Amino acid sequence: MIRPEFAARRPRSSRMRSSVAAVVLLAIGSASLAQSVPEEGEMPSAALDLPKEMTIFGKSDPNVRKATAVVNGQIITGTDIDQRLALIITANGGKVSDEEKERLRVQVLRNLIDETLQIQEAAANDIKIDPAEIQQSYERVAGNFRQTPQQFDAYLRTQGSSAASIKRQIEGELAWSRLLRRNVQPFVNVGEDEVKSVVDRLNAAKGTDEFRIGEIYLSATPENAEQISANARNIIDQIRKGGSFAAYARQFSEASTAAVGGDLGWVRPAQLPDELAQAAAEMQVGQIAGPIQVPGGMSLLYVMDKRKVLTADPRDALMSLKQLSIAFAKGTTKEQATARAATFAQETRTIQGCGAANDIGQKLGADVVDNDNIKVRDLPAPLQEMLLGLQVGQSTPPFGSVDDGVRVLVLCGRDDATAAGAPSTEQIMAQMEEERVNKRARIYLRDLRRDAVIDYN
């Protein structure tokens, strides 16, 4: 579990809304980490009084995998599984081996069972999501792809999925979040002394490193650790081949942060279990590591960003830029493009301020575009480094390709970032409440699984 020293994250309500809106955007395009102590209501494994030496009678055949299930009388069909699986495969550009598809199919079925249990429990508490609200969320997702709902319906069908599958996932998230707000959140409290303690620790940590971390947590026992580790390595391989970390976190992570793509927000190493803290401290932005053994299972870590606690980050500076670009005619060879790019580079090196950029652009036949209020961190990493080293009026070296043409950026102005302040009391309290709600939500879902009647077909 993350310890309660953290930088501010979005309030719970906005995170819930954005989570639902991004459900499919992330898939197509804890409370926490592993617990160092048993969670509330959980029994340590020692309480099972297991024998040291065991003989397994009637071993199950790992090659026999049942594809569908009936959960408390509600059917999950093979089509349901296929359509949800198609979203994951699409997120990986369709490059998923047959063996990996079978493993994913088993996990998708588990996820659908949990989703069904959550919707059923919400309905039992008189919580039903209006179809019009589900449709509105679906339309927002389609809009993110610059498509109408009808166009998005057709796109999903070409990928082997359907609008119904996505709407079901949206319904599950909305129903579960409202159930937690009614049955769990009112009974979670955070004291002012706890908040003050967090603020004091944040101020004491000013200037130290903190990371924006993504995590996929997989529970494991000594008996299945080898298989879970193999699953974890398969996930890493798929992500390194271009798969979406957020999509895999949503589908496979057993931490409650799965709903937001595994995003833990900004954390410092001191807030993490020792095993994860050591890994994070050694990683660079964009790296993924794992599987990392932690109490109760293993984790995959992804470093999304890095900054200093309560310290201005140069990458938050806003820049005014002027872009000069030239395109290459169709059929231009690499040698011809290189020669013209060299001439372009020689001429643009003479730029002395943005006032001269237009004249040089006209001389070179280049397109000139003004871009104001560009945040440095929103640019590709190589450009970030170049721009941060420029003085006003200087230009970057040319960059581009034969297909995209060549361009330079001229720095016309920069507003440096101000030092970040500590999060407000309300933000800290909301985050601490959220972590506690998430912990109880995990126990809630565990109990639903325990009481469920599930028939595998």
Automatic annotation (TrEMBL):
Keyword Chaperone: yes
Keywords per UniProt: Chaperone, Isomerase, Periplasm, Rotamase, Signal
One Pfam family cited in the UniProt record for this chain: Rotamase
Keyword ATP-binding: no
InterPro entries, A to Z: OMP_Chaperone_SurA, PPIase_dom_sf, PPIase_PpiC, SurA_N, Trigger_fact/SurA_dom_sf
Domain (PpiC) ranges: 208-305
Signal sequence extent: 1-36
A GO term for molecular function: peptidyl-prolyl cis-trans isomerase activity
Record protein name field: Parvulin-like PPIase
Species, as recorded: Sphingobium algorifonticola
Species lineage: Bacteria, Pseudomonadati, Pseudomonadota, Alphaproteobacteria, Sphingomonadales
